[in-house]
Please model this.
Amino acid sequence: MARTPRILHLLLTLCILSSSSISISSAPSATDAFLGCLAAAGIPPRLLHTPASPSYAALLLSSVRNLRYVAPGTTRPLAIVAAAKPAHAQAAVRCGRCHGVRVRVRSGGHDYEGLSYASLDRRERFAVLDLGALRDVRIDAARAESWAGSGATLGELYYAVGAASRALAFPAGVCPTVGVGGHLSGGGFGSLMRRNGLAADNVLDALIVDADGRLLNRTTMGEDLFWAIRGGGGESFGVVLSWKLRLVSVPETVTVFTVRRSRNQSATDLITKWQEIAPALPWDLILRVVVQNQHAQFEALFLGRCSRLLRLMRAHFPDLGVTQPDCEEISWIQSTVYFAFSSSSKPLELLLDRGEPDRYVKAKSDYVQEPIPRHVWERTWSWLEKPEAGLLILDPYGGRMGSISPSATPFPHRKGNLYNLQYYSFWFENGTSALEKRMSWVRGLYEEMEPFVSKNPRTGYVNYRDLDLGTNEMEGNVTSYAKARVWGEKYFKGNFERLAAVKAMVDPDDFFRNEQSIPPHPAAKGWSSD
Ligand code: FDA
Model:
């Protein structure tokens, strides 16, 4: 399936005749030529926003979730292409290649390092291809399948699934404003992961625009590219327009609880024990922890009734002291509201709210493979009582996560990982003083934890993007493979090499490039899919 409107095909052919390789231009005329090309390809002017348009600033900001990357001095896109149909994305890629303008793809805009709308390179001239309008979600409840546009949010997807059936769900992240496109590209974990794995583990097919502007599905893209887009990180391989998803069954009634224990109420002991208990719990129970200020908050989702949950908690974790009044029996869709808004009585329509850009963020992540000793947790409280402190989020793995091969998808953090540890700092004040204090808090605690987390490499989660791990560097006019490997193996371990080989096959000119995109493998070889 390579549906190519005639005008687009003609554009690319003309372009290939006039230039055989990609060089990214900084000339203002390249911008005009790019915009002219988009107009010639039939993109209506109302969908093309340049800094001169009154709509540009509001659209740029609309889905930004980290104000650090729209601060004055940040490199901004020379245009935003607000795609309304697949042909617009195809045209953006073809015109970008033709006129030396890179395309940064944006779905939900939640990238922690702003890579979908900002560039660290002040000379880079790029356009944002905004997929926010490609947000259609179609549910086939009888087949337990869905097609979801990349521009939909997780909340929109959950809402549509919940409206179709009380007995179906989709396993993905906790925050409803996150975009489907970036989330699935990097894996995507949430409260159903111990029973059903990652969002990316439940992708059946996808529609992608490749570096030649062709529209491909699973059959026409081939299994290597289909493997790479399910966890290999956003941007590197093409523009995924929509995803065919496997929906999972859930009981019509599930149980949730949140219990908070302070440092004085033995939170240190509880966290220490939790590290071994939570990853070994039955697959239909997840118990995550958020550690903030001087307390630990234990949040659970159980795919069953309260009475059975209480029996399980008494058997596995009696010290937590969960009792009947802590339980709430609700539907799965209400549980998504419960975890996002700390209340199950809020309306489901909140899932459709796309949120506002309101904060500055810095996050980092680790995988913990051996329980962190109690004295280390005791020491962590002094970090958490600082005025500039952020919080820690501990998401337990095990269950289905541990039973999937580390090479089945690019996401390698499977068996042997007890939990993902996220260091998350957010603040609302502008200015360098707040920035420096918050950044050094996150970096300082991360450094202190080094002896107690995964090693060789110290791994992290690509969707918790962290440019401190390294960024792409150019050697001549190609991205250095050796330098990229440093950050790449932290996110993907042994799968990095295969990702680079796929990249060499599908985008040898490295058109889809950002600070942490996969570079083409210098000695690409054939890979067979799992
Ligand atoms: P955005 O549009 O910024 O894209 C992220 C990256 O993917 C960029 O490099 C972009 O170019 C690329 N990209 C986007 N769309 C693409 C497409 N269609 N095709 C190809 N490339 C594309 N994660 C998690 O696993 N579980 C969780 O519970 C949460 N919770 C959470 C809460 C909050 C508040 C934030 C800010 C983030 C999370 N995350 C998370 C992390 C989240 O999964 C991650 O930031 C995703 O990449 C965000 O996807 P968006 O589409 O919103 O981002």
User: Anything to note?
Assistant: The pocket of dihydroflavine-adenine dinucleotide is lined by residues 65, 104-112, 115-116, 131, 150, 173-175, 178-179, 181-183, 185-186, 188-190, 234-235, 239-240, 463, 514 (CB under 6 Å). The chain has three domains: 6-130, 137-249, 255-330+358-464. The domain at 255-330+358-464 is CATH 3.40.462.20 (Vanillyl-alcohol Oxidase; Chain A, domain 3). The chain is about 30% helix and 20% strand.
